[in-house]
Amino acid sequence: MTIQNSPDLPEGEAATVTGPTHPVPETEAKGLSQGQIVRRKFFDNTAAIVSLVIFAIIFVLAFTSVGFAGIPGWWKYNHTEFVPLLDGGVPTITGPFSWGEHPFGQDSIGRDYFAMTMRGTQNSLIIMFIIGALAGLVGVVVGACSGYFRGWPEAVLMRFTDVIIIIPVVLAAATLGEAVNRFVGAGAQIWLLGLFLGLVLWTGLARLVRGEFLSLREREFVDAAKIAGASNTRIIFKHILPNAVGVIIVNTTLLMSSAILLETALSYIGFGVKAPDVSLGLIISQNQEAFQTRPWLFWFPGLFIVLICLCINFIGDGLRDAFDPRQKKFNAGRVKDARKPAAA
Amino acid sequence: MVTYIVRRLVTAVLILFGASFVVYQLTALSGDPLEDLRASNAPNREQLIQARTELLDLNTPAPLRYFGWLAGAAKCLVPFAATCDLGTSIQGEAVTTALARAMGNTITLVTTATVLAIIIGVSLGIITALRQYSGLDYGVTFLSFLFFSLPIFWLAVLLKEFGAIGFNNFLADPDIPPTTIVVVAIASGLIWSLFASRSWKRKGIAFLLGAVAAAALLFLLDLADWFTSPGLGPIVILVTGVGIAFGVVLLTAGLRNRKALYASLIMVALGLVAYYVVNPILNGATVWMIIILAVITILVGMGVGFLLGGYDRGQSMRAAALTGVFMGLLIVIDRFMVTWPAYVGNSRVRGRPIATVGAETPGLDGTFWINGLDTFTHLLLPTLALLLASLASYSRYSRASMLEIMNMDYIRTARAKGLSERTVVMRHAFRNALIPLATLVAFDIGALIGGAIITEQVFAFAGMGQLFVQALRRTDPDPIMGFFLVAGILALVFNLVADIVYSFLDPRVRVKA
Questions:
Q1: pLDDT at residue A8, as a whole number
Q2: Relative to the CA of A117, which of A126, A155, A316, B400 has its CA 20 to 30 Å away?
């Protein structure tokens, strides 16, 4: 569909035409797979790469500082222990390498706020990844089956999707919270929250994937595969899915960014992560009355939500540009602009 | 078409049955409705528990209880029979009454925010698409990602802190320090230079003009003590009106169309006359009076356009009517501003006009203008929060749609015919770019009524979202079901509307009959 090379250019010449006078065919040299083209376009996108780096830093910081799954972290406090208030709990961070005793300050009862924020970030990230993986999986399976098989599977699955779509998410989360309190320990809380939210948030993706499968199954290469005797499984996994992977990846990324906002919002109104554990939304809601006296309790968790969400949005946008075959058209316009002074 | 609609409606009813059953069971599972009573120390605890168990019919298992609720809800389908029974809340209020009140509040809250978000978002999207890869494009893209990433509860708390408390403090002693004037001037200059086209010279001129204008404006407002007693006055109305007239004509008909321009300018003059003539009647204004005046304005505008416009009357009529509406708006705004000192000085408001919670000042009893200002000051911050949060998706969506349209062959054809850029953009591209947005808007309107759960929570706004959350906290099934019924039906109906509208707007898309 999007063959990126120019047919009149022999393969050997690709290296010689990359000079400043012919900037056009450089990225379109022969022998690039779709994956390579996407990767190259993505790495050309500064905003997406910067976001990826920042996101990686936040990820590493959140998981190593306060420890994860029983492995202790390098930070000296954890999110539950009470430490005597130092200087009213004011943040001691003054630069990227001079953190001081309590870089993000302490809350009103003396807990180290850096540890709390990190723990909250960790929880938010875990929930986000569970939602992304689960909603992505269910959405792709439902969308693929209904788009490929049509007929009664499509009717049943799509009506089922419609039922799920109008069930309020807050209700699902609240039900889960109660179930956790009754039947499971608080330790499994965030995992179950992610699981439950993932089980109701796949609907949008399912619709998109179905649309993609509907149009792809009518294409000639699918007919060719059928005539060659390929099984349904093989056609779905080998022929159609690789062509729909762009839509799936991009929308799963965007789903994850809205998932993190959803989780923090739910925790904020009291239906998400609950009290002994911390979440970024929960600690904001616990401390918003103290805005006048202890503004840092409000700023730091919010900053982390915004940073994570912003990074994921930019990564998603970069992926969208990278996967979009029409992107070539826009670049052609830009290249034309760039060529003008050279031609004059 | 009719078969299609009927079939969709039948499926919608089935979906509603299935989903309502699931929601009922989830609600029953989500908590213990007797929790607060079990913990209470009241001497008649047992009786209270008994009474509530009977009220909510807790001895029946939840799957069976659902059918009891369904039997009541089914009565709502009987037309004109006022037998609608959606049950009662734990406090004993009928759900239908509570729903009606909450819906009214929510609609006032979300309508303005959505309309503004659509208008501003779409225009930003179109402008950035026309200036792709410019500074403006990058700036707006970054900002829309930022707003998209802001948790709305965080934004709301910030707005309360700086928009309400900070601004009220400023209003108590309105004096702008020179540093602020300089900062604002530079910011305004930067914004204007972003809007200017590519050459650096024009950017510089725009920067200077924007900065000087902002500084002068702030200085004058400060000097005239405008913030304590605001107002527009006839001169500002006249100047703004002429500017609006030119702008409207530029967009709807093009400045070359002199007839349209004259018609709009006549409307500005008429508006200025109306400013003096209508002002006395406005003292006893009501909502209906304003609506009637608006209709009269539109009719007069169309009349003026009709009488003047020779060759293409439609354009002149449209431009004149639009200008008239804007003039009317200016007059109404001026009137509100004149009422401002009286509102701020009101004993209930006590000099702190911008409210942080609620939908109205309790016990405030005033004229149409005072009450209007009261609604404005209460809705300002929640509307702003909702607006910023939903702005991003509209601007991104319309930008993508416009970019796609501008690459179409028929746009090249239109240019090749020698049409002006305005005609190409406004008539050929803009209208077609709006088609995919129609679906988005229909979906959003469907989601509106149930929408603003978090915002209503932060601003203590007694709307649908708060009804839902409070009922959920008490595990009170009937209000939750009421909320779900309204939100679910609207979502399903507007889903259908979106599909039908799309097939009307884009004849290539046919609905399967």
A1: 41
A2: A316
